[in-house]
Design brief:
five-stranded mixed sheet, 21 strands, about 40% helix, single chain
Length: about 625
C-alpha cells in the first residue's frame, strides 16, 4: 500500500492550504483517462491529463491485467500520491428523482434510505446511496436526486484497477460525472441532453434549469458500430473504429449506408428515451425540438453533428466544448467523465452523488481531520518562526539604529566641543577689542548728550550747573550733607569722586546706566514747571535714551556749587541710556543687579555700569 499525502499538495514537505488535490480515473473499454485536479479557494484547475491504453483481449488474461495495474500505479505515482476517485459505469448504477414530504433532516435520510432499498428490489447485497436536494420544477416541489449502486460492484471496480480501497476517496456514476462537468462550465444552462457515446454503451443525462434530473444508458456504443461496419467492409474491428473516427461515412466517396443505418437506429433509441421522459414530465411543456443535444465520446466528430442536424425536425446537436488545445488532440469530451469524477470528489458538484462505501467515508473523514490538525500545527510553527524572525530582525535593527545614534551623539559632542573651543577663541579675540569699542561708544554717547542738552537750552531761560555720569553723581554726598561744596561756580563731572562717608541707608537709590544733569529755571510757578516738562519731553525724543525723568529731592546729590543755583528752582534730570551693544558679557555684578535691582557701589573711577577699567576724568573748571 502506498503512503498517501492526503488531499493536500505539499511543497518541501509542507502542505499548501487550503488547496486539495485528487486523481480521477475514468475507465472505458478501450483506454483509461486519468486527470489530476486541484481545488484552491473554490476554483478547480485540471493540472495534468494522462491516457493509458488497454491491451486487446485483457479479459481472462492475468498477465495483461497485471501489466495494466502496474502502468496505472506508475501514472498515479508520477502524478503524486494523492487520493483516487473513479467512475462507475452508468448501467451499474441508478439515479432517480423522488418526492418526499417536508420533514427534518433525520427523517429525510430515513425515508430516502427506505426508497433506495425499495428501488433496489429484493437484492440481498448491500446498497450504497447518496442524495442531493433539487430546486422545485414542474410537479416536483420537494424532490431529491438519489443515486445508488450495489456495494459489490463498487469494490469490484476498485479491484479491477489494482488500487487499494483505502486510497479511493470518491466514486460516482458516469451520468453524474457528465452532469457535474457540464454544469461546472455552464451552471445556468437551458434544457440540455448530454450524450456520451462510449465504446460499449451510450450514457444519457438530461439537465433542466441548471440541475440534472435524469440519467440512463443505451447498450449501443462504438464497438457495436465498428463490428457491424467491419463485417460489411471486411476489416478488423480496430480498423473499423479508426475509419469511424477519421472519415466522413455520411457523405462523399467514403459514405457507408451500413453506418448511416446504425446511427439512425441509435438516434431512434435516443429519441425514444428522451420522448418517454418528456411524456412523464409533460407539465414542463417541452418537446424534442426545444432541447439542445451535446455529444461527446470516441464516435463524435463534426461529420456526425452535421448529419444529425440535417435530419428533418431535428433538435440542435453540438459537440462538447474544448477546455484547451491539448484536448483537441482527442475526441470532444474525452476527459469529461474524469473531470466530473474529480469535481464530485472535491465537493464542487451541485448534486452530490458519492457511491463511496461508509467504511471508506469514515476513514477519509478521520484522515482529513488529522491532516487539517497537522497542517494547522505546521502553520502555527511556521507563524511562530516568522514572528521569531521578525522579532529578531527588529531587535537587530534597533541595535543597529542605537549604534548609529550613539555614533551620531559622539560626533555631535565632539562637534560641540570644537564649536565651544571656537567660541572661546572668538570671545577671547572679541574681548581684546571690546573695551575699546565700549569706551568709544561711551565717548560718543557723552559727546552727543552734551550736544543735545546744549541744543535743548537754546532760547530758554535756564542754565545747567551739573553734567555727570550716573555712578559719579550718586556716589556724591546727599544734598542735605554737611560737606562743603567745591569752590567753583559751574563744573561738569565726568569721573567719580570718592565719598567721605557712607550715605544713609535711606538715601540708597537704584542706579541705572545714563547721565544726570542739574538745571536752574529762573521762572515762577506753572511756567517753571511747564519749561521743566518741555525740557524732559525734548530729551525723551532722543532714541539713545531708554527713559528720561526728574530725580526726587531725597535722591539728589550735593555736586553743584550752591552759589550757582536758585533754591526751589534747581532740578536734577536722569537720562537712562539704552544698553550698550559692546558692554561686557554677564558678570557677577550683573547677576547681582538682576537679582537685587540695585547697582553695587563703585570702588574706583569708571564710566558705565559694568566696566572697572576706565580711569576717571578730572573735573573741568569754568
Amino acid at each position: 500500500m502506498r503512503i498517501l499525502n492526503g488531499q493536500f499538495p505539499y511543497v518541501l514537505g509542507l502542505p499548501i492550504l487550503p488547496a486539495r488535490r485528487v486523481i480521477a480515473i475514468d475507465v472505458d473499454a478501450r483506454n483509461i483517462k486519468i486527470v489530476l485536479a486541484q481545488k484552491f479557494l473554490n476554483k478547480v484547475a485540471f493540472l495534468r491529463k494522462e491516457v493509458v491504453d488497454l491491451p486487446d483481449s485483457i479479459e481472462n488474461n492475468e498477465i495483461a491485467q497485471s501489466t495494466l495495474r502496474n502502468e496505472i500505479a506508475s501514472v498515479i505515482e508520477s502524478l503524486g500520491h494523492y487520493p483516487v476517485a473513479i467512475s462507475l459505469s452508468q448501467h451499474l448504477t441508478l439515479s432517480q428523482v423522488i418526492d418526499l414530504p417536508p420533514a427534518s433532516q433525520t427523517d429525510i435520510q430515513r425515508m430516502i434510505q427506505g426508497e433506495a432499498h425499495r428501488i433496489a428490489g429484493l437484492s440481498q447485497t448491500k446498497i450504497i446511496w447518496d442524495y442531493a436536494p433539487l430546486k422545485p420544477y414542474g410537479k416536483h416541489t420537494h424532490s431529491f436526486w438519489v443515486t445508488l449502486s450495489q456495494e459489490q460492484e463498487v469494490y469490484k471496480a476498485i479491484e479491477n484497477l489494482g488500487i487499494e480501497k483505502e486510497e479511493v476517496c470518491g466514486i460516482t456514476s458516469t451520468g453524474n460525472a457528465l452532469i457535474s462537468a457540464y454544469l461546472q462550465k455552464y451552471p445556468e444552462t437551458v434544457s440540455t441532453v448530454l450524450v456520451d457515446i462510449g465504446m460499449r454503451s451510450t450514457t444519457v443525462a438530461i439537465l433542466y434549469e441548471g440541475q440534472g434530473i435524469y440519467t440512463t444508458s443505451i447498450a449501443l456504443g462504438l464497438e457495436l458500430f465498428a463490428e457491424s461496419l467491419s463485417s460489411s467492409i471486411g476489416c478488423s474491428t480496430q480498423a473499423a473504429i479508426d475509419i469511424i473516427c477519421k472519415k466522413n461515412l455520411f457523405y462523399g466517396n467514403d459514405k457507408s449506408d451500413v453506418y448511416c443505418s446504425l446511427i439512425d437506429g441509435w438516434l431512434q433509441e435516443l429519441y425514444r428515451i428522451v420522448g418517454e421522459w418528456l411524456t412523464d414530465n409533460f407539465e414542463l411543456r417541452l418537446n424534442l425540438e426545444s432541447l439542445q443535444f451535446v455529444l461527446c465520446g470516441n464516435a463524435c466528430n463534426e461529420h456526425l453533428i452535421d448529419y444529425l442536424n440535417k435530419k428533418p425536425n431535428s433538435p440542435h446537436f453540438s459537440l462538447w466544448y474544448y477546455e484547451d488545445d491539448e484536448e483537441r488532440l482527442y475526441p470532444p469530451g474525452f476527459f469529461a467523465v474524469a473531470k466530473g469524477v474529480s469535481l464530485q470528489a472535491l465537493g464542487c458538484a451541485a448534486q452530490s452523488a458519492s457511491l463511496l462505501p461508509d467504511e471508506l467515508k469514515s476513514s477519509w473523514q478521520k484522515l482529513k481531520i488529522a491532516q487539517v490538525v497537522q497542517s494547522v500545527c505546521i502553520l502555527l510553527v511556521l507563524l511562530f518562526i516568522i514572528l521569531l524572525g521578525v522579532g529578531t530582525w527588529q531587535t537587530a535593527f534597533a541595535a543597529r539604529q542605537k549604534s548609529i545614534l550613539r555614533s551620531q551623539i559622539e560626533y555631535g559632542l565632539k562637534l560641540a566641543e570644537q564649536l565651544e573651543d571656537t567660541k572661546k577663541v572668538i570671545l577671547q579675540n572679541y574681548e581684546k577689542i571690546r573695551p575699546v569699542l565700549y569706551k568709544k561708544q561711551i565717548t560718543i554717547d557723552t559727546i552727543q548728550t552734551l550736544e543735545l542738552i546744549t541744543v535743548a537750552r537754546s532760547n530758554k531761560p535756564m542754565w545747567f550747573v551739573v553734567f555727570a555720569d550716573e555712578q559719579t553723581y550718586f556716589n556724591a554726598p546727599p544734598l542735605s550733607g554737611t560737606n562743603e561744596p567745591p569752590q567753583t561756580n559751574l563744573f561738569v563731572v565726568i569721573g567719580p569722586t570718592m565719598p567721605t562717608s557712607e550715605p544713609p541707608a535711606t538715601n540708597k537709590v537704584v542706579v541705572r546706566p545714563g547721565y544726570v544733569v542739574e538745571v536752574c529755571i529762573p521762572e515762577e510757578g506753572d511756567i517753571m514747571r511747564k519749561t521743566l516738562s518741555q525740557l524732559v519731553s525734548d530729551l525723551k525724543r532722543d532714541t539713545r535714551f531708554k527713559n528720561v525723568d526728574t530725580i526726587p529731592f531725597e535722591q539728589r546729590r550735593l555736586v553743584a556749587d550752591q552759589k550757582t543755583v536758585l533754591p526751589d528752582k534747581h532740578f536734577a534730570i536722569f537720562m537712562e541710556l539704552a544698553t550698550n551693544e559692546f558692554q561686557p558679557l554677564q558678570s557677577t555684578n550683573e547677576a547681582t543687579i538682576m537679582e537685587t535691582g540695585t547697582f553695587p557701589t563703585p570702588t574706583s573711577g569708571k564710566i558705565g555700569i559694568y566696566d572697572k577699567t576706565m580711569p576717571p576724568i578730572q573735573p573741568l573748571q569754568k
